Amino acid sequence: MRQVETDVVVLGVGSGGEYAARRLARAGLDVVAVEARLVGGECPFWGCTPSKLMIHAAREGRTASSAARRIREATHDWHDDGHTEPMESAGVRIVRGHGRLDGPGRVRVETDEGSVLVTGRRGVLLNTGTSPAVPPVAGLAGTPYWTNREVFGVEEAPGSLAVLGAGNIGCELAQAFGRLGSRVTLLESAERILAPEEPEASEVVARVLRQEGIDVRTRTDVERVSHDGTCFELTTGSGAVRAEHLLVATGRRPHLDDVGLETVGLDPTASTVEVDEHCRAAERLWAVGDVTGHGAYTHMSLYQARIAVHDLLEEDGPTAEYHAVSRVTFTDPEVAGVGLTEAQARERGLAVVVGTAEVDSSPRGWIDEASGVVKVVADAGSGVVVGASVVAPYGGEVVGLLSTAVHARLTVPTLRGMHFAYPTFHRVVERALRDTGL
Ligand SMILES: Cc1cc2nc3c(=O)[nH]c(=O)nc-3n(C[C@H](O)[C@H](O)[C@H](O)COP(=O)(O)OP(=O)(O)OC[C@H]3O[C@@H](n4cnc5c(N)ncnc54)[C@H](O)[C@@H]3O)c2cc1C
Ligand SMILES: NC(=O)c1ccc[n+]([C@@H]2O[C@H](COP(=O)([O-])OP(=O)(O)OC[C@H]3O[C@@H](n4cnc5c(N)ncnc54)[C@H](O)[C@@H]3O)[C@@H](O)[C@H]2O)c1
Predict the structure, then answer these.
(1) Cβ atoms 117, 106 nearer than 8 A
(2) 316: annotated binding-site residue?
(3) Ligand number, closest to the Cα atom of 43
(4) Is residue 19 lining ligand 1, measured as CB closer than 6 Å?
(5) Which residues form the Pyridine nucleotide-disulphide oxidoreductase dimerisation domain (predicted)?
């Protein structure tokens, strides 16, 4: 077996791993990056970038083929040279193959040319991310369904599409395909779409999707799926659904069961790797990104990578805080959130006050005929804002001011003393703050 020595091994190269490998190499460390598929991971090739390009084309009234052209351009036709070249010019050595931990600081990689044992003197940064999780619905496994790995190669919007799962991926793509011309049925087993978000947010998005002609069915279990060569048929409690294509968007499976966690004393059956405030997970092991369970977002992977890099470089640096994590679902209107929802705050035993305001109750919302709602969650005693949601056009941008507030633990009275430009969407935030009564 070939043996390679280095300072740091990056195992799995998603967004955080890519950033960390480059930064560590530029700081003078020797770095080996191990990747089984495409360097850069889910976000640029099968995630954020292609989905947002599809959403953009749909919003602008363009065709699926024009979206496909820009997706091929952005992904370099699913080649990762745009990611490997900057890494290699920073000095990172890339080893292609499936890697497994083999004790502290060691990774064994199965490459096309045989096994390679890579030893990292400082350690290993784990960034193995997730794959689509496919539910065990009878008949599904034998059918040509799509997940996020296939859907962005589509050149034409199908006449009809069934979408299984109404989380971020399901809602974003159901709306995009609807606007690109497909007749869409969105099937969700839970009682509401976008269930982790505030109920007010789910309600607005469900209403908008239905107004756009999407058949949204919640509390719907699919009992069986079949494909007759041209069409899917889904058997559900609320009747059969026939569609030309089926997109499965029912959650993610972390890449943790086959990475040798047991060789460093961790549980290989766990769904996340627990990390401390420096993103350390075990002896000479750091972990970043989706596998840490702090939010499956690109910005989380990058945030944690920055922290792990400081620690690996033995520098004084920031430690990880998670009280003000922000998130955006890129439906129209966008669903943005930061910190705790009302339900999460109550589960933690906080005495909370909430304030809400409808977007169309504000001059800008009325002018733009926009749907949406802003909700602010604050600690009743201190007045500190602990969470907020913004469902609005540019909600992902508007939430920025509330992210600052939750991050800096500002109070409702402090925020109410601000100037809010007229007539902007963010003036709705002022109304929601006032509605808290603080
Ligand atoms: C359709 C879709 C849309 C999304 N949109 C957004 C969005 O708008 N905004 C946002 O913030 N997030 C979005 N996300 C989530 C985002 O893509 C992820 O959170 C992000 O990619 C960070 O993931 P990661 O760094 O944990 O690793 P990943 O990107 O999952 O990369 C992990 C890498 O590790 C490799 N790997 C795994 N196991 C091994 C192994 N044993 N050996 C070698 N290599 C291995 C994989 O091949 C992969 O390349 C979206 C996701 C999807 C699917
Ligand atoms: N804009 C963004 O930041 C963005 C966009 C897309 C994805 N992501 C990330 O990717 C992750 C995965 O997204 P996702 O949408 O696949 O998963 P998800 O876990 O967010 O949603 C999956 C949905 O499918 C439903 N479901 C599960 N099994 C089902 C079944 N058999 N029938 C019907 N419904 C079923 C669940 O109740 C849930 O509502 C998210 O956690 C998110 O962090 C982020």
Answers:
(1) yes
(2) no
(3) 1
(4) no
(5) 325-431
Q: What is the ipTM of this complex?
A: 0.98
3-state secondary structure of 29: coil
- Asked if 320 and 303 touch (Cβ cutoff 8 Å), the reply is yes
Asked if residue 172 has pLDDT above 90, the reply is yes
Residue 88: HSE in the Cβ half-sphere, 13 Å Cα cutoff: 9
Check pLDDT > 90 for residue 404.
yes
DSSP assigned state of 411? B
Sign of CA dihedral 147, 150, 155, 158: negative
Q: How many CA atoms lie within 13 A of 131 on its CB side?
A: 12
377: DSSP letter: E
Distance CA 151, CA 244 (A): 13
Tell me 153's DSSP state: G
Q: In this structure, what token pair is assigned to residue 177?
A: 């395909």
Ligand closest to 189 (CA) is 2
375 is in an annotated binding site: no
372 has binding-site annotation: no
Torsions phi, psi for 162 (to 5 deg): -100, 135
Give the DSSP H/E element, type plus range, for residue 123: strand 114-126
Any ligand 1 atom below 6 A from CB of 99: yes
Alpha-carbon gap, residue 410 to 404, rounded angstroms:
8
pLDDT of residue 317: 84
With cut-offs at 50, 70 and 90, classify the pLDDT of residue 45: very high
Q: What value does the mean pLDDT take over residues 127-133?
A: 98
Torsion of CA 353, 358, 364, 369, to 10 degrees: 160
| Banded pLDDT at 238 (limits 50, 70, 90) | confident
CA distance 294 to 301: 9
8 A C-beta contact, residue 423 and residue 362: yes
The verdict on the CB of residue 190 being under 6 Å from ligand 2 is yes
Which residue in 429, 375, 384, 377 sits closest to 410, CA to CA? 384
Give the closest ligand to the alpha carbon of residue 190: 2
Torsion of CA 337, 379, 304, 150, to 10 degrees: -20
Instruction: Name the band, by pLDDT with cuts 50, 70 and 90, for residue 52.
Output: very high
Distance, CA of 420 to chain centre: 30
All domains of the chain in start order, with CATH:
2-40+80-131+253-312 (3.50.50.60), 140-250 (3.50.50.60), 326-435 (3.30.390.30)
Ligand 2 site-directed mutation target among 250, 299, 327, most atoms within 8 Å of CB: 250
